[in-house]
Structure formats: structure tokens, C-alpha cells
């Protein structure tokens, strides 16, 4: 009997957990006896993945905030490195979380372990010098978007563009009526979905800002209904505590169900990140916002090389959706943009058309295409 192949995967947040679950499922269809270990969340674990550490220990953001947890993070990375080497893993895949994963991938590759990175860092947007480290750290970069793959080809890094798995999972024509029926919401209601992020720090920065915005919007739209999907049990508890401060604002707080909540919405107010892509795929008008620590923002903003931060705008190469970041993220600005979207049906129709075009451009096979690229890597001769 041959020894089962061992594949390591490290995902640091809920979007990575979702990608990782699809990847584990697709790889297992090719390697039925494979063992999958590393760090992952509930979706990956439901596919038979063994997580060596809780995923939320990696869920830190920015440049300054992770320094507070640096000893713990270095300890986790050291333990993973030793485990993957000792157990003779054939392949280790970092999913996003580049500040954590690239250093691990680099050390493992130097020891002869094949490595891949799934979801490109925003190296094309800022800190472009990182491309040198990436070229040394990975045997394969797997990107979600075509413009990212072009950047890696220009720098001689092996790359596979697989599109975004969500583009294949989410139908081109979302069923808003069915989503509202599932949530017990009237078909003709005015619905605003709030998505303040999946990390504790994001919710801390954005939840009250979004809820204050919803209060102002409800004053102008009296029959407004508000949905808030919590990304995890921890975020559910955090949001419950915050909502106690808003007894005058009726909200439907959901445990998960983010896709249903977006599908049911007329407008989505969300934190910049994967949720903006999801709202685009559900063809929903949106307002994108973000706040982080002021010193982190000061550092990042000086290094940005792009005109936009949200994926709909980056993919379209134009300002399709409003982006209100940091000091521009005020209740007044956000409520003005949200109410304008509720009132402008012509704009909603235009966005639906553009979002459909962008959706179609991202259908490249997703998890199955990523598994094919990784199996090709596994079966190629070692360099």
C-alpha cells in the first residue's frame, strides 16, 4: 500500500476557509486517500480537513495591529513548519494571509517542499517589491482575477488564473424573491443589508458606524428593513452586544446566511474585501467602506499604486461603486450614498448589467481549475 499524500493548507479568515473548502473537495476527488492538515475553519473541517490551530488566531489585519500578537503568530508558524517537514508533506498551500503564509512558504520551499499560494496579495497595488520574495517562495501562484495573472507573467512567476469559485457558485440571475421568502421578509420591502466584516477588529471599527447609518436611512425610508449576517459565532455574540445599543432599530441578525442576506437586499453597505465581490455577483448596488487604525492607514495609503480598493471597481477599471474610506467614512456620507441608491432605479439597472458582464468574466472553473493546476504541480518533476 502506498503512503497517502499529505497536503498542507493554511487559511486565516472566513473567505479563505470558503476557498479552502472548495479546494479540499476538488483535490480529494483526484487524491481520494490524501490527508489535509494545517489551519482552516468550519467549512474546511466539514470536508475532512484537520486544523492544528484555531483559524481565528490568524485573523489580524493592518500593519500595526499584528505586532501585538507577533510572538504567538511566530510560534504558530514555527510549529507548522516543523510539522510539515517532519510529516513529509508533498505540497503546502497558503490561502491569502500573505504576511503569515509567504514566509512559511519560503522556508518550506528551501527545504524541498512544493509550495503554492492561492489568492494573490495586492502586490500590484502596493509594496510591489514583494514580487521578489513571492518568486522565491512559491512554485505556483494561483490568482482569482485576470489582471493579477498578467502582473505575475510580467515578472516571470509561474501563475494559474482560475477565476473566483464564487462566480461559478452564484447564479448569474439571483432569486431575490426566494431569498426574501426564506428570511420571512415581504417581497415588496425596502431591504438594506449591513456587512461590517468577518474579523473582530473590523466589526469593532465598522458595526456602530453602519448601524448609525441605518438609523438615519430609516428616518428617510420608514419601512426600511435591516439585515446583518454574522460571519461566525464569535461575530454573532459581538454584534448582539452592539445591537443592544440600538433598541429603536429593528434588525434581523442572522447567524451566517450572508449570501441569502445579500440576495434579499436592495442595497448593501459593506466593508471592503470579499463581500464587495459577493455583492457584485448578486448584482446588488452597494456602498463600500472601511476603517482601520490611523497609523496603519497612514502607512498603507502612501504605498497604494491603484485608484480604487474595491474589487468591482478594480475589475471594471472605473468607479462603479462608491468607496468611503477612513475619514470619508462618516454617517452623513454613508447615509447619503445609501439612500441615493434606494431612490435611483435607473442606476440599479445599469449596475446589474455591468455586474453581470463582470460575473461572466470570472467564470474560469474556480476550485476545479485550482485543483487541476495543483495536481499538475504535484505530478511534475522536482526542480
From TrEMBL:
Pfam families: LpxB (PF02684). The keyword S-adenosyl-L-methionine does not apply. Pathway: Bacterial outer membrane biogenesis; LPS lipid A biosynthesis. Coiled coil: none annotated. One of its GO terms (biological process) is lipid A biosynthetic process. Keywords: Glycosyltransferase, Lipid A biosynthesis, Lipid biosynthesis, Lipid metabolism, Transferase. Its EC number is 2.4.1.182. One of its GO terms (molecular function) is phospholipid binding. InterPro entries: Glyco_trans_19 (IPR003835). The keyword Lipid biosynthesis applies. GO terms for cellular component: membrane. It comes from the Bacteria. It catalyses: a lipid X + a UDP-2-N,3-O-bis[(3R)-3-hydroxyacyl]-alpha-D-glucosamine = a lipid A disaccharide + UDP + H(+). Condensation of UDP-2,3-diacylglucosamine and 2,3-diacylglucosamine-1-phosphate to form lipid A disaccharide, a precursor of lipid A, a phosphorylated glycolipid that anchors the lipopolysaccharide to the outer membrane of the cell. Belongs to the LpxB family. HAMAP family: LpxB. This is Lipid-A-disaccharide synthase. It comes from Porticoccus litoralis. The gene is lpxB.
Amino acid at each position: 500500500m502506498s503512503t497517502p499524500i499529505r497536503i498542507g493548507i493554511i487559511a486565516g479568515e472566513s473567505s479563505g476557509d470558503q476557498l479552502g473548502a472548495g479546494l479540499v473537495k476538488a483535490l480529494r476527488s483526484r487524491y481520494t486517500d490524501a490527508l489535509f492538515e494545517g489551519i482552516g475553519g468550519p467549512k474546511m473541517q466539514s470536508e475532512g480537513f484537520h486544523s492544528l490551530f484555531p483559524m481565528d488566531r490568524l485573523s489580524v489585519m493592518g500593519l500595526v495591529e499584528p505586532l501585538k500578537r507577533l510572538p504567538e503568530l511566530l510560534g504558530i508558524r514555527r510549529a507548522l513548519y516543523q510539522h510539515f517537514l517532519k510529516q513529509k508533506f508533498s505540497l503546502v498551500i497558503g490561502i491569502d494571509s500573505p504576511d503569515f503564509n509567504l514566509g512559511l512558504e519560503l522556508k518550506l520551499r528551501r527545504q524541498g517542499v512544493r509550495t503554492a499560494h492561492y489568492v494573490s496579495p495586492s502586490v500590484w497595488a502596493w509594496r510591489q517589491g514583494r514580487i521578489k520574495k513571492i518568486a522565491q517562495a512559491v512554485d505556483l501562484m494561483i490568482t482569482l482575477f485576470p489582471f493579477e495573472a498578467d502582473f505575475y507573467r510580467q515578472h516571470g512567476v509561474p501563475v494559474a488564473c482560475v477565476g473566483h469559485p464564487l462566480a461559478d457558485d452564484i447564479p448569474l440571475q439571483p432569486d431575490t424573491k426566494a431569498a426574501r421568502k426564506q428570511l420571512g421578509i415581504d417581497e415588496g420591502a425596502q431591504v438594506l443589508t449591513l456587512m461590517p466584516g468577518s474579523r473582530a477588529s473590523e466589526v469593532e471599527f465598522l458595526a456602530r458606524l453602519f448601524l448609525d447609518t441605518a438609523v438615519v436611512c430609516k428616518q428617510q425610508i420608514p419601512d426600511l428593513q435591516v439585515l446583518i449576517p454574522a460571519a461566525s459565532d464569535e461575530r454573532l455574540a459581538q454584534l448582539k452586544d452592539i445591537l443592544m445599543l440600538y433598541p429603536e432599530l429593528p434588525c434581523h441578525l442572522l447567524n451566517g446566511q450572508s449570501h441569502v442576506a445579500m440576495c434579499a437586499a436592495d442595497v448593501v453597505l459593506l466593508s471592503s474585501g470579499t463581500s464587495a465581490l459577493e455583492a457584485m455577483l448578486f448584482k446588488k448596488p452597494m456602498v463600500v467602506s472601511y476603517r482601520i487604525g490611523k497609523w496603519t492607514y497612514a502607512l498603507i495609503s502612501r504605498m497604494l499604486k491603484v485608484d480604487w480598493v474595491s474589487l468591482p471597481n478594480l475589475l471594471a477599471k472605473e468607479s462603479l461603486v462608491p468607496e468611503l474610506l477612513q475619514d470619508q467614512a462618516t454617517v452623513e456620507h454613508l447615509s447619503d450614498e445609501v439612500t441615493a441608491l434606494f431612490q435611483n432605479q435607473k442606476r440599479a439597472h445599469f449596475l446589474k448589467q455591468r455586474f453581470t458582464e463582470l460575473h461572466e468574466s470570472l467564470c474560469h472553473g474556480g476550485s476545479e481549475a485550482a485543483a487541476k493546476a495543483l495536481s499538475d504541480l504535484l505530478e511534475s518533476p522536482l526542480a
